[in-house]
Amino acid sequence: MEWIKVFSSIEEAHLRLTENAPQLIVVHGVSICLVKRENNLFAVENKCTHNGESLSKGSVNFLGEVVCPWHGYRFNLKTGRESNERARDLITYPIKQNEEGVFVGL
Ligand code: FES
Fold first, then answer.
1. How far apart are CA 40 and CA 42, in angstroms?
2. Are the beta carbons of 77 and 40 closer than 8 angstroms?
3. CATH 2.102.10.10: does it fit domain 3-105?
4. Domain ranges across the chain
5. Which residue minimizes the CA distance to atom 4 of ligand 1?
6. What pLDDT does 88 receive?
7. What's the gap in Å between 67 CA and the centre of ligand 1?
8. pLDDT truncated to tens, each residue of the chain (106 aa)?
9. Ligand 1, residues 33, 57, 67, 73: which to mutate, most atoms within 8 A of Cβ?
10. Residue 98 CB contacts under 8 Å (≥ 6 apart), including other chains
């Protein structure tokens, strides 16, 4: 696995991201939907597995699921699992932080 730095510090991540507001980042050509929620960061595949909409245009509900803006499919941010098993799970990407920054694992 390759770790790619996406923020120089956790403080920068918290400044740049809005709670429960999905954000698109492109890391080495891979589109990732990044979410800050309850002091955690989650990174999942950006492309909805139902019909390809960008999940970063969606929202996050009270269950911690990213909700696709197109047809409302819901995906668990930790596991990538679609709530009703109507589409395949999203790829999830690990995140780590240390004194050198915040990294996404590809
Ligand atoms: S494209 Fe996402 S729910 Fe249909």
1. 7
2. no
3. yes
4. 3-105
5. 71
6. 98
7. 9
8. 999 999 999 999 999 999 999 999 999 999 999 999 998 999 999 999 999 999 999 999 999 999 999 999 999 999 999 999 999 999 999 999 999 999 999 9
9. 73
10. none
